[in-house]
FAD/NAD(P)-binding domain-containing protein (Vreelandella olivaria), 239 residues
Amino acid sequence: MPTPRIVIVGAGAGGLALATRLGRTLGKRKRAEIVLLDRNTTHVWKPLLHELATGVLNSSMDEVDLRGHSSAHFYRFQRGSLTGINREQQMLQLAPILDEEGYEVLPARELAYDYLVMAIGSVSNDFGTPGVAEHCHFIDSPEQAKAFQRDMINTFLRYTDPNLRQHTQLTIGIVGGGATGVELAAELFDASRMLNAYGVTALDNQQISVHLLEAAPACCRGFRNGSVKRLKQSLKRWA
């Protein structure tokens, strides 16, 4: 009887944890071939992306190299982007892999499976809020977090002249008062304090105004009342 192949699409928190568990239980004993498919070669835990966005997290130190991790946990990592599924033939269609200059490294190809797990995760929902999709940064991936970080640092760099301090007020809007939005607000104040101390910018916390926009009557709904109360107190201290 041939060894069954279990393909997991998506190396986020769920997909990586499942590949690791199946690799240790089935892959190690050769009872199944475990394949983890993702377009990226590294994994960064999504709840930490706000720290990457503000420069608090060093991605090179906190990310997981999927190739090395796979060899240590008895599954096989394959890089690729899913473009289609043939359920009748149990086959995945993968896009070509291109290098940084747009040249093809691997052509489009197919990957057969016996069992398929879709763990592609989720993206932020703007709920149709006007202007959000066109003008806001989203922090759903390391690439988006780094793009936010570049824009944030460039914005602060524009104010390196201490003479501008009296004439500048930087306003930052965060749409969404969940855990990520609240933590991002706190990290922005910490980042501005650090950049000011290092002489990167003349702006300090007195010149920064962070607006946390939430449709619900309170931030972090679903948290315990005591936690929400302490959160409000902390936000008032930053305000």
User: Anything to note?
Assistant: Residues 40 and 227 are 35 Å apart (CA to CA). The longest strand covers residues 33-38. Residues 179-197 form the longest helix (19 residues). The chain has two domains: 5-118, 132-238.
